[in-house]
Prior knowledge:
The structure holds two protein chains of two kinds.
Chain A: H1 2-5, H2 30-71, H3 75-82, H4 84-87, H5 105-108, H6 111-120, E1 122-128, E2 131-137, H7 146-161, H8 169-179, H9 187-191, H10 214-221, H11 231-234, H12 252-264, H13 270-277, H14 281-293, H15 308-317, H16 327-331, H17 350-361, H18 372-379, H19 382-394, H20 403-411
Antiparallel strand pairs in A: 1-2
Chain B: H1 5-28, H2 36-41, H3 64-98, H4 111-143, H5 152-172, H6 186-208, H7 217-237, H8 244-279, H9 286-299, H10 315-327, H11 329-344, H12 347-352, H13 354-376, H14 379-385, H15 389-419, H16 426-459, H17 465-470, H18 473-501
Pfam family, one (chain A): Cytochrom_C
Keywords (chain A): Electron transport, Heme, Iron, Metal-binding, Respiratory chain, Transport
GO molecular function (chain A): electron transfer activity; heme binding; iron ion binding
Amino acid sequence: MTRINKQKPGKIVKPGEDFEPWESHNPVPLPVIWIAVALGIWGTALLLQEQDSKVVAQAEREAGEAAAHDAAEGGAALFLANCSTCHQPNGAGVRLAVPPLQDSEFAKAGPGVVAQILLRGIDGPIRVKGFTYDGHMPSFAEALDDAEVAQLASYVGARFGGGETVLAPAEVAQLRMTHSGSGSWQGGAELASLVADLPPQPPMPATAEAGLDPAISDLIFAGKGDVWSCASCHGGLGQGAENTPRLAGLSQGYITKQLHDFRQGERHNEHMSFVAKGLDDAEIDGLAAYYAGLRVDSTAQPALGGDLARGEQIALQGDWGLGVPACFSCHGPSGFGVGAEFPALAAQQPAYVASQLAAWAGGHRNNSPLGLMDRISEALPEADRRAVSDYLASLPAVPAPEPQAMARIEGGEDEL
Amino acid sequence: MPITMGLLLALSFVVSLLALAFLIWAIATRQFALDRAHAATVFGKGGADGPDTDGTHLFDTTGIDKVSARPVRLLILGAIFWLVLGSVFGVIASLKLHWPDWLNMAAPLTFGRMRALHLNLVAYGWLSQIGIACMFWILPRIFRTPLRAPHLPVIGFWLWNIAVTLGALAFARGWTDGEEWLEFPWQLDMLLVLAGVFFVVPLVKTARAREVDHIYVTGWYYLAAMVWFPALFFIANLPGIHYGVEEATVNWWFAHNVLGLWLTPLGVGAAYYFIPKIIGKPIYSYSLSLIGFWGLALFYSQVGIHHLIGGPVPTWVVTLSVVHSVMMFIPVIAVAINQHVTVARNLWAFKESLPLRFISFGAVMYTLASFQGSIEALRSVNSITHFTHYTVGHAHLGAYAFVSIVMFGAAYHIMPRMMGREFAHPGLIRLHFWLVVLGFAIYFFALTIGGTLQGLAMLDATRSFAESVILTKPYLEARSVGGTMMTLGHILFAINILGILRKPRAVAQSAVAAE
């Protein structure tokens, strides 16, 4: 090498064609070995961590199950966990939306009746303490075991009905047998067979399908001209999926307003703008009425990896550090929805809710009254937007308010 | 502690690392009766004490090159044809990303087909053929014996090129197997496999007839590639075996291994040969060569699944792949020391030799591409860069800046020796070098910056998806500029190679000064 370096420029002697490469025997530099060892340790640790994360997840799940089991020891805890978001912690219910438990005819009828309602749920109009509600209560047959149903029913009967009967798990098991496969109670009319001295109950309305205008039905299930059918994206029951919202049970006014906004370019979505431009006012009203009247179980579940506890906190209390009010303060208890301006949030598809929050935050959706949602969404960090979306998806589907009740509210005639 | 996948994985990982370390130690310290003595002696003659200053002529002194010349010449010409055509398709595909309505009158001209054409023509038409050409040139030389059965690779050449031509027609008509990197319909895959047999048989025969016991490191890479690639190709292309998630897993296992266990051995093998060959010095360390080779063999095969981070495959498969991707630092550092130290100690040769300029630039790009790849495989980085143009920039850093540019240098080194004359216009070679290097720099930095911004925009839910697309436009335009410069460089490359094939009008000068 030295010889070559001493050559004058232009006179460098190139290696011969006979030269074929070979390897000299320098040792491996120590840093290479250190790097190799360090990477080996890192790799092993990462693979082991894979195992840790599973162990931790397992432990957390078991701890969670154990905690849930422990909590189930008290009827009060069961009530808080399963009933209070709708019926309220004091059992007062929500005016025009959720029947009260306090002093209700059904609570007074004793824990046996309460247990049977818990096991089957309710789907139909029901009159409680002089007011009619569009009852839509989920069944707890799968969620709670016999002992839990017994405890909960006894607790509700004692606290809100003033009775002293205590239900035994064996009795619940028998009731479960009797009612297995019967479906939801068809409103107060069917429950009247269970409870003596019940005031007159409203009759079950004809199903939504029967009263559906064939033109609207075509729009929903077959589309019209270039406009594809609603059901092709929102599902046959308006249940939504992923980024397509659940429509079932949204208020008629809200759906109407959104379709008008899409049509007039005040809300932006390539698909919906196109669809809405193909609809006239009567069709919009018909569709809105149809979806507002649909009662469909929730198909949403938390899917965004959000922190449910944090989501619950935002929904119930807000975060005043961020200047974010509780969702439920406007959208109603349990996210029922209030009027045309505040849509139902419970059981809404989480990807849709998160995408709408993101759209408000990014200025892509701006048809919220007074710009309320714009400001709230901007204040929420991305993780919070996912958390609250997932929490809302975990709530049971909300009953659509009874049409007459809506009319009464809007007409200012209140029975109270 | 319960026995879980993670524990089993970690244990088997440690065991395989220890086995690897033991293997390398054992070979390096001659624990089994191999042939280290030959390593020092056979190649020592004429090399150990400096370059042989007598043999500066370009003519083949051994008669070995004469035998390999025909298949090598054919393969280089075929490779250049597909390189030029494949780059044109690449430029068209690139332009379509910012001129979406351009050339949209017929289905074969649409982006999806142009891209498939570009990928497969440069991968199978250009890189594979030029790499095989280097095999046919280098292996007989390091085995010190003429190529056996030299007519077979000529048949292989025609079969291979017929398969690539039919493949190109198939892609243009929209007939593919439907997976990236596996576009060739399996019927044509059989033709490629058959062609491969015609390439492998003569090389194995030559290896068996070798005049030396010790195989130089280039030979390890080449012989291994001849086993790895057919195995990969066969398993991944066998129709009707893999479905669903498993199909995706096999798809990316193959697609990434094509780079690591086929193109990388071709490129690293060539660099390992040509760098010391041109400089006239041995490479730095035999032990490092062992680490580089066996490290690649152990770690690379699991690397591909990092393409499925976030996908519906078991987490442990992805984690294993991430770990293996990062472990690639070890063999890459070993190769880097071996190659770059040799060049850095002989910078005079870098200035003197144009082929070396290409080859050692390419070798440095191997180091950078591999480092980048290891980091890109980490979940935290991957969540930004995945599904963006960043990945395209990385792919070209490996397949283009490394393998292709090494191959340019290899061709420029081989052709004068094959033809017995120098290039008439070295200036055109210099122009080729600067066109592809500057063109690539524009290409790479544009896509890396644009891709990162794109990834960040996609992660930000408050920004619409369209925004993440629109913001890439200036970077895509820059990419087209860089790609066009590279393509112009390829046309110059073709002119240079065709130029030296033509007999010069003046009397041929046998020995000229500047290479």
